[in-house]
Amino acid sequence: MKKMNFIVSGFLALSFSTTLFAASNDTSARIEALAKLNKTINTVERYYVDDIKFKEIIDKAIAGLMQNLDAHSAFLNEKSFKDMQVQTSGEFGGLGITVGMKDGALTVISPIEGTPADKAGVKAGDIILRIDGNATMGVTMDEAVSKMRGKPKTPITITIVRKGEQKPFDLNIIRDIIKVESVYAKIIENEEILYLRVTNFDKNVVSKASEFIKKHPKVKGIVLDLRNNPGGLLNQAVGLVDLFVDDGIIVSQKGRDNAENSEFKASKSNTITKLPLVVLVNGGSASASEIVSGALQDVKRGVVVGENTFGKGSVQVILPVDEKEAIKLTIARYYLPSGKSIQAVGVTPDVIVYPGKVPQNDKDAFSIKESELKAHLQGELEKLAPTTAEANKTEEKKDEKELITTKKLNDDIQLKSAVDVIKVLQIRK
């Protein structure tokens, strides 16, 4: 890695050291290419319509290089580098969305549950056309992220292009400090099935997931919901799979440099459950989520239900250029136990189910009307006995925190399908 740092830094400084040239088998071709770059920079500096400083030309050249490598590599100037360090600390104002470049468009990988973007209605797959009136075409991903960040309680307007909508539309959002509960669990009412939701892969995922599984030893199956999970820490993805799998490769990492190649394997000592398992995914499931769902699918430990995942299976590292600037460079790709890459392909579910409500038959339709009548009568009672009404509301909130009710299950056909798959797995067991 030190060697890579040296080569990158030497190139960015346009250093023509003998050490740099020694790394090439064709020194004359390398000199010729660098001379062409130098001539181009001099021409731009001399003839471009605006007076542009030499450092700015170099910065733009580096940014263009990184942008043309792949969607995830980027040049981090002084401001971007600072923003990244702030984000890593977890204290920043933002919208609560993870974005990526897909087919050249700034695309929402997923809104983070409970954040301003989620509450405003941002959806996975949305294309962000403008930020506060400024077009995102030609803007790097890191520049776009920087524009969306800001002080908490400040407004921002993003213009969205969404599949199925006739024209772009604006969403007005108020930034806030992003605090996310990465793992929580509920019991699915009348089903004795544990619903385990992982919203992102932070450092607490494995310990929390393990805690919830051990807390409910009598359940008959587990639904692991990774929908709209943009990823996170690799070790937590590996550790989560290891809770369900005895042995074998979970994921491998392969790059150009053999030093970056590694395999991550399961250990029997870490496995805590053999219960039937279904994994829920969608287009907002990316990176670590795809490693988990793809690995469990490959080793036939879990059934994957939902929609095709995002397809982000590459490894990026931050390599400093100097004390104030750096590059984010793709150095490797992830491969599933089968040897398949998820980059730009994603994970295809075993059972494809699109989002929506469970279709109702006539009897169910009557029940809905009856529940609406009860809700109306309850509202009338609240006018007469507010104390009782408040008690009922408290009980409902408690139920929501601990249970996924039958009504909520029927409002989510993907989750309902996952429950049905677990019932089939129980029969086959």
UniProtKB/TrEMBL annotation:
InterPro entries registered for this protein in UniProt: ClpP/crotonase-like_dom_sf, PDZ, PDZ_sf, Peptidase_S41A, Tail-specific_protease
Positions of the PDZ domain: 83-149
EC number: 3.4.21.102
Top EC group: hydrolase
GO molecular function, one term: serine-type endopeptidase activity
Keywords: Hydrolase, Protease, Serine protease, Signal
Pfam families: PDZ_2, Peptidase_S41
Example of a GO biological process term: proteolysis
SUPFAM superfamilies: ClpP/crotonase, PDZ domain-like
Signal sequence residues: 1-22
Protein family (similarity comment): Belongs to the peptidase S41A family.
Name of the protein this chain belongs to: Carboxy-terminal processing protease CtpA
Lineage: Bacteria, Pseudomonadati, Campylobacterota, Epsilonproteobacteria, Campylobacterales
Primary gene name: ctpA
